[in-house]
Amino acid sequence: MKKVSEFGICPFATTQKVLTGKWGLVIIYQLSTGTKRFNELQRLIPGITQTMLTRHLRQLEEDRIISRTVYAEVPPRVEYSLTEMGKKFRSVLDAVEAWGLEYIETLA
């Protein structure tokens, strides 16, 4: 688990560190629509490799944005979902999406 000192005190820098990488926002968005399994996430995110998805899921779990639940079944079942802190990010995603759509319109 990361300590506060690793993030610093600037809220913008903290958010940027949590969302580092190309896929963080997309993964959080997909999980904001509900719990998903690994292969489902990979299908929903075109272009992401298995390695990159694994890396980002681990990082988001370490940052306590997502949770990973392993079920004692054969074959094993693992599900990913947003934590309470991750769910609070939904309004930010909505704002980013709205801004992105508006920006795309200005480019047309």
UniProtKB/TrEMBL annotation:
Pfam families: HxlR. GO terms for molecular function: DNA binding. Keywords: DNA-binding, Transcription, Transcription regulation. It comes from the Bacteria. Residues 10-108 form the HTH hxlR-type domain. PANTHER family: TRANSCRIPTIONAL REGULATOR, TRANSCRIPTIONAL REGULATOR, MARR FAMILY. This is Transcriptional regulator. The gene is ytcD.
